[in-house]
Amino acid sequence: MRRHLMTTTAVMLLVMTGAAHADMAAAKKFLDTEIGDMSSLSRAEQEKEMQWFIDAAKPFAGMDIKVVSETLTTHEYESKTLAKAFTAITGIKITHDLIGEGDVVEKLQTQMQSGENVYDAYVNDSDLIGTHWRYQQARSLTKWMANEGKDVTNPDLDLKDFIGLKFTTAPDGELYQLPDQQFANLYWFRYDWFNDAKNKADFKAKYGYDLGVPVNWSAYEDIAEFFTGREIDGKKVFGHMDYGKKDPSLGWRFTDAWLSMAGNGDKGLPNGLPVDEWGIKVDEKSRPVGSCVARGGDTNGPAAVYSIQKYLDWIKAYAPPAANGMNFSESGPVPGQGEIAQQIFMYTAFTADMVKDGLPVVNKDGTPKWRFAPSPHGVYWKNGMKLGYQDVGSWTLLKSTPDDRAKAAWLYAQFVVSKTVDVKKSHVGLTLIRDSTINHKSFTDRAPKLGGLIEFYRSPARVQWSPTGTNVPDYPKLAQLWWQAIGDAASGAKTAQAAMDSLCAEQEKVLLRLERAGVQKDMGPKLAEEHDIEYWNKDAVSKGNLAPQLKIANEKEKPITVNYDELVKSWQK
């Protein structure tokens, strides 16, 4: 038996020694075959970073680590390519599961509620930042990197290079999530149609101003009306695209900052304070005090109701008849089929799918016939407010994960966002997280084929796009209420006002349960007394705030458009 043990030990030492030599060989092979010059680092800097991962991973070699994310192109690349490379380089076996977004949140909730280690790390939306901060079940990465995780934190991680850290930082000033992928909701339009001489002349004759990128919803509405039913290239086209099926995906359509685009909530970046884009108000201690106007919130205020009514009016009048029965996934490919003039609300994660050769919206030279531009805003919107949504899928380590497993998972998380890897990964998924990547020469070269995506991310405008903020105390519980309430409006079962009255009441039921349970302690809800809108508006104005705003008598403001090319030039200045 002793002889058998000695033999086994000798074999293991040989294997481990061989593996140590193979690590850098595996790293060099990865750099040669997968990365090349698609990195913001020089080859020497890449090898230095890989050597750090090799050394830091030694105590965890042979471990089986499980992480999870939603199914996006970026994460598919991580799961199929980067996880294998990381395993070959470090000896840590990574299983990177890809599941639906809702399933990720469900697994996360299960681990938070049971304490059982379901996954060693999660890529979940930064929309959960308020949840993680209040429940205190996610590790503070600020503390982790300074203490238990210091030995496995890449000295060249360069947090200042990430463009989304303000979205994953809580009111306590600590970082709870590390961005992995990021994309915005922008205005999409047919650049070729907007620059067609006859279209421009006909539009100017009918509306009295130039056809261009709409700055406000009033102009968007005119453009939608103008193109709907117009014949272009032998086909009747539509001036708008959206979706309306009563489905969980309808919730994202509205929680992803639709109300703030209309002018709901208060000024403030990345989110309105004290009232955010969900209409939830917090006090000076960041405790939620209400969602309904009666408690000083804005979920059912005039701006929110206006936003829902416009959605209902436009999908009925200007979108294809089938749109109201579609969900998010079904509606996504429609603009690429060549019959839509503009879409007010498109996720840039679809960019790769919109620039494929052979599509009706792509020229023969591979350049797009369309462009992205900043989203137009509604009549209640004021300068200083956020103007749209950015999805920021971010690495999160729960406290219920044992330290050694969390350390190994943290190494993988840093590997897939490292400067060595990020430029190449961003070319695959087009979900940009680092300044050094956004400004890389390869993206300057590729920009003409991406329809304004790179110009937007290099512009000062991008700061007005942000995820759900910290006013939302329990994202999983509250988010699921939206599609049900707004689905009733989309189906015609309720008016816009009735739907939002119902939604804010349901949100306050959740807030009240959290308050009574005391599970979020001093950071949890503390509901305010009820008063009418005039009371709360006067109170807000006296403190230099906006929400809830009173109803504007004429919600059809003067339409404004801008020339797209001039807009891009102004960013470059």
Tell me, rounded to a whole number, the average pLDDT: 94
Helix content: 40-55%
Return the structural class: alpha+beta
What's the total helix number?
23
The largest sheet is:
7 strands, mixed
Judging from the principal axes of the Cα atoms, what is the shape? Answer: globular
Sheet-strand content, in percent, reads 5-15%
Radius of gyration: 25 Å
Low-confidence stretches: 1-21
Short key terms for the protein model shown above:
alpha+beta; 573 residues; disordered N terminus; globular; two-stranded antiparallel sheet
Account of the 3D structure:
With 573 residues, the protein is α+β, with helices and mostly antiparallel strands. Helices cover 45% and strands 11% of the residues. The strands form four sheets. Strands 1, 2, 3, 4, 10, 11 and 12 form a seven-stranded mixed β-sheet that branches.
Briefly say what this structure is.
The chain is α+β, with helices and mostly antiparallel strands and 573 residues long.
SSE topology sketch:
Blueprint: H1 2-35, H2 43-57, E1 64-70, H3 73-90, E2 93-99, H4 101-114, E3 121-125, H5 129-135, H6 141-146, E4 178-190, H7 191-194, H8 197-207, E5 213-214, H9 217-227, E6 231-232, E7 235-236, H10 248-255, H11 258-262, E8 281-282, E9 288-290, H12 302-318, H13 328-331, E10 342-347, H14 351-354, E11 370-373, E12 390-396, H15 403-416, H16 419-429, H17 435-438, H18 441-446, H19 453-457, H20 475-490, H21 496-517, H22 533-542, E13 561-562, H23 564-572
Parallel strand pairs: 1-2, 1-3
Antiparallel strand pairs: 3-12, 4-10, 4-11, 4-12, 5-13, 6-7, 8-9
Helix pairs in contact: 1-2, 1-3, 3-16, 10-20, 20-21
